[in-house]
Structure formats: structure tokens, C-alpha cells
Amino acid sequence: MSSKVMVYGATSAIAQATARLWAAAGDPLFLVARDGRKLQQVADDLKTRGAARIETRIQDATDLGGHAPLVEEAWQAFKGLDLALVAQGFYPDPRRCLEDPELMRQALEVNTLSVFSLVNALARRFESRGGGGTIVVLGAPAGERGAGDDYVHAASKVAVDVFLEGTRRRLAPAGVQVMTVKPARTASPLRGAVGQGATSPSRVARDIALALLKRQPVCYSPGYRRWWS
Ligand SMILES: NC(=O)c1ccc[n+]([C@@H]2O[C@H](COP(=O)([O-])OP(=O)(O)OC[C@H]3O[C@@H](n4cnc5c(N)ncnc54)[C@H](OP(=O)(O)O)[C@@H]3O)[C@@H](O)[C@H]2O)c1
Predict the structure, then answer these.
(1) How many angstroms does the Cα of residue 86 sit away from the middle of ligand 1?
(2) Residue ranges of the chain with pLDDT lower than 50?
(3) Atom of ligand 1 at shortest range from CA of 60
(4) Atom 15 of ligand 1, nearest CA residue
(5) DSSP letter (8 states) at residue 214
(6) How far is the CA of 173 from the centre of ligand 1 (A)?
(7) Is 89 helix (H, G, I), strand (E, B) or coil?
(8) CA-to-CA distance for 106 and 90, rounded, in angstroms?
(9) Taking CB atoms and a 6 Å cutoff, what residues make up the pocket around ligand 1?
(10) For residues 201 and 186, is the Cβ–Cβ distance under 8 A?
(11) What's the pTM?
(12) How many CB atoms lie within 10 A of CB 88?
């Protein structure tokens, strides 16, 4: 059976790889990103891979007031959603971030506040339906074992962990699954050159798909990174 999916931050490398799995399964996809040109390329690719239907919308994640109306639009367009992936993220230069309050604000707005606001809008919508649905968020293992000099980024992601833990508990009675994904360093534009040993976005995508089947609350990718990083 197909799932009606919303992908926020759809131009993310990890989101694209994951959406390809859903497209291949024939799922309808509601894609949101801030860059219309990139978004159209992603939509075209997913269409050729089998997505039953594709809707695209442009939104900057820092437009907090726009989140709830957009979730509602996706809900109305697809007559409900089964799954939402929240993927936007920003990795600031660690040193500059400590000296530039504007950069620090941007990191917290994109990585933390926008995720809180969007997850909350999704949570309210799934909850009001009276049950079911899944919210998947790309978090990070950053901060779990102490951060290096990139502790602003780590703090912005740890806050997401705590928020999702609370949301998971709140939505459990309604049968809504909330999954935190913690990819190891992954080859994507986020952090530029990552060197050897980086995980591929498609590996993270496969781990997400498997964790969804198992209804895991947290998905480490690769899984062994849970014990070693
Ligand atoms: N790569 C890693 O090593 C790694 C490890 C752990 C966790 N993660 C997390 O995984 C998620 C996806 O990252 P990725 O590796 O796939 O990197 P990516 O390809 O660089 O994706 C980052 C995404 O965030 C979007 N974005 C940034 N600021 C935004 C804003 N203000 N409004 C809307 N969208 C915005 C980017 O949009 P544009 O395409 O327009 O720039 C892009 O789609 C992030 O949350 C990241 O923290 C990544």
C-alpha cells in the first residue's frame, strides 16, 4: 500500500536518497524546499523513478508562521498524510560561529527553531486526525559524546533530540510514530569535503526505511555508530 509523504528540505542529499525509495514504491510526494530551481530538478528525478504524484512548494524553513498553513495545504492536497520527513539543516563554520552572533542565530533558527515549529505543526495535524502517521526528523549524533569545537552545531541538534523525545511521548497515545535519525558523517553538500569513510546518503536512506519498518524511535546510520563514533 502506498504512503502519502511530505518531504521538507527536499533538496537535501539524504532526503533525496530517501525520497527515491518512496518514489520507487509509487508513493505520492509533497516536496518543500527553499530553492525552486533545485526543487524542480529533484521533482523531475522522483517523477521518473515512479512517484505516483508530485506537488512542490517553496518555503524557507525560517518562515515559522508558514509551517502550519503549509502542512494544512499538503494535508488537503493529498487528503491526509501518512509520513513526513524533516530534513533541513545548516552546518556553520565552528570558529566563525562563536564570533558572529548572526551566524549563531542562523544555525539555531534552521537546525532547532524551524524543526520545533514544523514538527509541532505536523504533530497537531496527525493528532487531530485521531491516530496513526509517522514523523521522521534528521537529527545528528553530534553532542552525544561531547562536541569538538563545533559545539554550537552540536547544541542545536541536542535540543532537537530532547524536543523529539517529548513529542514522541506526547503522540504515543495517538499511535503517531516519531523517529529521530542520527546519521554519521555523510557525503553531502552540508559539510563540504568529508574525506574517506563518510557514509553515503543512499546508505542512510536504506537504514531509515528499515528503521521505519521496525518502528524504531531512533535510527543510527550506520547502526554500529551507536556504539562507536
Ligand atoms: N551530512 C552529514 O554528515 C550529516 C550528519 C548528521 C546529520 N545530518 C543532518 O541531515 C540533514 C540533511 O543534511 P544533508 O547531509 O542531506 O545535507 P544537505 O544536502 O546540505 O541538506 C541540507 C538541506 O537543508 C536545506 N536548508 C538549509 N537552510 C535552509 C533554510 N533556511 N530553509 C530551507 N531549507 C534549508 C538545504 O537547502 P538548499 O538545498 O537550498 O541549500 C538542503 O536541502 C540535516 O539536518 C543535517 O544536519 C547530516
Answers:
(1) 10
(2) 227, 229
(3) 32
(4) 188
(5) T
(6) 31
(7) coil
(8) 8
(9) 9, 11-14, 33-35, 38, 60-62, 87-90, 110, 138, 140, 183, 185-186, 188-191
(10) yes
(11) 0.96
(12) 24
Say how many Å lie between the CA of residue 10 and the centre of ligand 1: 9
Residue 137 corresponds to which amino acid? V
What's the DSSP call for residue 215? T
- Cα 24 to averaged position of ligand 1 atoms, centre (Å): 23
**Residue 216 to residue 180: CA distance in whole angstroms:** 9
Q: What is the pLDDT of residues 100-141, one digit of tens each?
A: 999 999 999 999 999 999 999 999 999 998 889 999 999 999
Work out whether the CA dihedral 202, 114, 120, 225 comes out positive or negative: positive
What span, in angstroms and rounded, lies between the C-alpha atoms of 5 and 54?
10
The domains found in the chain, sorted by start residue, are 5-226 (3.40.50.720)
Q: Give the atom of ligand 1 at the shortest distance from the alpha carbon of 194.
A: 3
How many whole angstroms from 130 Cα to the centroid of ligand 1?
A: 31
The long-range contacts involving 159-165, CB below 8 angstroms and separated by at least 24 positions, are: 159/112, 160/111, 160/112, 160/115, 160/116, 163/115, 163/116, 163/119, 164/119, 164/137, 164/139
